[in-house]
């Protein structure tokens, strides 16, 4: 039995899904994997189901009807994880932009005192490979914008590679998390910090996908831009005392 669950949302990831699953299971630290698939028409879910024969009791899949957003996929996974006995719950992309070997480093950070460990692209310079300069600048300045509005000291506010201790997800009211796209990652960090949890950035190298298509869109960035202000204002009227 593993104490660590890696949640991987998928939509049309047939080129990557088997490779990423096998890589996670090859690591020295035992992890379980939960795939949240939003009705991928390319057969991603079936590939996972076939792999379950080889990885019984450690590979799981939850299927949802149609694209419902990254944030709702993770919240679905968080609730699933909390029903189980996992102590450490991870977010990771399916496309190898996040190096699975860094899962161990994120877990170690939580073992050493972090409540949330973030795989950070910007805590030590800019560590991004194969992104066009325009996207690097957009991402980097998005984090600067988040720091300006929210006053949280996180260099990579939009990062999606994370490890949570169970208590963080037990404390955050999932039904009050409003955003479903890019802004979801910001809102989760902001909320964890408001509750007084120790959020630590672990430097990683982020490598853009080489197979499959990116899910990023201008509407996702728009949600983040407007949503950060809305999130900050709403926080003035919320109680962040832990029960």
From TrEMBL:
One of its GO terms (cellular component) is membrane. This is Polyprenol monophosphomannose synthase. SUPFAM superfamilies: Nucleotide-diphospho-sugar transferases (SSF53448). The keyword Oxidoreductase does not apply. One of its GO terms (biological process) is glycolipid biosynthetic process. Keywords: Glycosyltransferase, Transferase. The keyword Transferase applies. Pfam families: Glycos_transf_2. It comes from Pedobacter changchengzhani. Transmembrane segments: none annotated. Residues 6-171 form the Glycosyltransferase 2-like domain. Belongs to the glycosyltransferase 2 family. One of its GO terms (molecular function) is dolichyl-phosphate beta-D-mannosyltransferase activity.
């Amino acid at each position: 039995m593993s104490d660590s669950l890696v949640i991987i949302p998928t939509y049309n990831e047939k080129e990557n899904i088997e490779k990423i699953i096998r890589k996670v299971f090859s690591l020295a630290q035992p992890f379980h994997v939960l795939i949240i698939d939003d009705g991928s028409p390319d057969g991603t879910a079936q590939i996972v189901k076939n792999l379950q024969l080889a990885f019984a009791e450690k590979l799981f899949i939850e299927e949802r009807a149609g694209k419902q957003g990254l944030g709702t996929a993770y919240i679905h996974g968080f609730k699933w994880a909390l029903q189980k006995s996992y102590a450490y719950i991870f977010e990771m992309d399916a496309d190898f932009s996040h190096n699975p070997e860094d899962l161990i480093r994120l877990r170690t950070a939580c073992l050493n005192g972090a409540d949330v460990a973030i795989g950070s692209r910007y805590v030590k310079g800019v560590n991004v490979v194969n992104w066009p300069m325009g996207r690097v600048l957009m991402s980097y300045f998005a984090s600067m914008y988040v720091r300006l509005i929210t006053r949280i000291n996180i260099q990579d506010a939009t990062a999606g590679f994370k490890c949570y201790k169970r208590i963080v997800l037990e404390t955050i009211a999932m039904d009050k998390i409003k955003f479903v796209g890019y802004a979801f990652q910001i809102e989760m960090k902001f909320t964890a910090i408001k509750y007084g949890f120790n959020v630590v950035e672990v430097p990683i190298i982020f490598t853009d996908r080489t197979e499959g298509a990116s899910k990023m869109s201008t509407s996702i960035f728009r949600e983040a831009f407007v949503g950060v202000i809305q999130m900050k204002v709403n926080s003035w009227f919320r109680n962040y005392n832990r029960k």
